Amino acid sequence: MSGLVPDWLPLVMAVGGAPRTRLEQKLWAARLSQRDVLRRFPEEAERQGEGEMHVSERQLKRWLAGGAPTPRAVACRVLETWFGEPVERLLGPPDDLTTTPDLDGGDLVTEAGRRSVEHAIDAASALDPSVMEHLHAAARTAAHAYLTTPPLELLTELVVLRDTVYAQLDRTHKPHQQAELYLLAGQVCGLLSSVSFDLGHPLVAEELARAAHTYGSVIDHPSLCAWARALQTTVTFWSGQPRRAVAIAEAALTVAPAGTARVRLHSTRARALALIGARDEVGTELAAAVDQLDHAGSDEFLDGTGGELAFDRSRQALCASSAFVALADGPRAETAATEALALFTELPDARRWNSGAASAAIDLATARALRGNLAGTESALDNVLALPPKERTEALALRLHGLGRILGAPRYRSAAEATRLAERIEGFTAASLSRTTARPAIAPLI
Question: Which of 25, 287, 312, 366 has the most crowded Cβ, counting Cβ within 10 A?
């Protein structure tokens, strides 16, 4: 070895690797392991007067790897005081080891060997199989609870479950367990996407749907990816971007597996197409969804989990009624909504999607309004308008806003029934979840 490069440096690189950041370099020099930092961080924060503060193993690994976003202000202060350098420098590249070695050759080789042993032990870390069993059971329970539980009640449980899954990812390095945890993370993020939209937060809902898709991509799981894209499609067309929703669903259909995944994508794409007036294409997509229903039932992830992940004939009929409502096709909308209501009614209470049944009732009411049947409109809405505020989801409110616009058309301005209904709808939507739920309720998801 020539010049300023020490003779022992290649051995250090081979045995222990080079530090990736200045922070990691400082830890090596101080002979501090990651476990030491996790243990001492709260002590340092307390000593500096910052109060109780912890850092997760996952976050510390991001800091050491480089490229992590700037930590919260309090964490920055603790790091800067502890290690005596600006946080931008600590999270940046290490000093040049060829000119500023902190240890002599023997110490560095010893340190490299110690780190290699620690890394090997860390790599062997695994979760007890019972942990995975409990997490799968909890995720499945949440998927079924979505059908019957008011969204605000489910939100906290899902956030806790998501964070638990994330914590377990930091505790195992077994590839098959990591893949299972990524699948669970995708499932829970997808459920959180649905709940977020129900609570009136479409931007958060789309972010969570994209996160679910990313987890599916990481583990090459086509069913998770397809479900996530269908969720994103739904949020997008409700947000007033039907053309973008069409494109999302169309791209997802090119790789989605047959059966339930494609039923949902064809159905949601039909609804988006209806919003841009593509009448012929709507019929084609709805027919394709019905065809795929014949292949449904064997998807291990979607059908095996069930609940919100499943997509049966009742939900397909609901999508059809919503598409025909968007096309202002009263007769076909009424037929499809009647079918959807009948199918929902046939399901056992535990499997009936309450919000879906209420949505079908609103579609039936809207179809009757399109046909001039105001008495039928009011009777179809009686049960919906009696729902307590905690069950008044964003989708129900948006559907009722659409009906309200029809009731406000010139043809109904002199009709007492239309005025009465419009007032009842205004009262309902004023107490919907998106109006009554405080923003902090969704904060843990952002």
Answer: 366
Same domain as 167, residue 103: no
CB 253 within 8 A of CB 266: yes
Q: Is 2 inside a domain boundary?
A: no
Q: Are residues 260 and 196 in the same domain?
A: yes
Neighbours of 244 (CB within 10 A): 15
pLDDT tens profile 106-151: 554 545 554 554 455 455 467 888 889 999 999 999 999 999 999 9
Taking CA atoms, 298 is separated from 259, 310, 319, 371, 388, in Å, by: 8, 11, 22, 40, 37
Same-domain pairing of 184 and 220: yes
Closest among 409, 416, 415, 421 to 370, alpha carbons compared: 409
Can you tell me the distance from the alpha carbon of 330 to that of 363, in angstroms, rounded to the nearest whole number? 10
Mean pLDDT for the stretch of residues 214-230: 97
Contacts of 351 (CB under 8 A, 6+ apart): 144, 147, 306
List of residues 6+ apart from 66 with CB closer than 8 A: 20, 21, 91, 92, 93
236-244: list long-range contacts, CB under 8 Å, 24+ apart. 236/206, 236/272, 237/268, 237/271, 237/272, 237/275, 238/197, 238/202, 238/394, 238/395, 238/398, 239/202, 239/206, 242/272, 242/273, 242/275, 242/276, 243/272, 243/276
Instruction: Supply 341's token pair.
Output: 């209501």
Q: Are 48 and 142 part of one and the same domain? A: no
Whole-prediction pTM: 0.74
User: What domain range is 193 assigned to?
Assistant: 129-445
- 187 and 53, same domain (yes or no): no
Total tally of structural domains belonging to the chain: 2
CA distance 150 to 164: 22
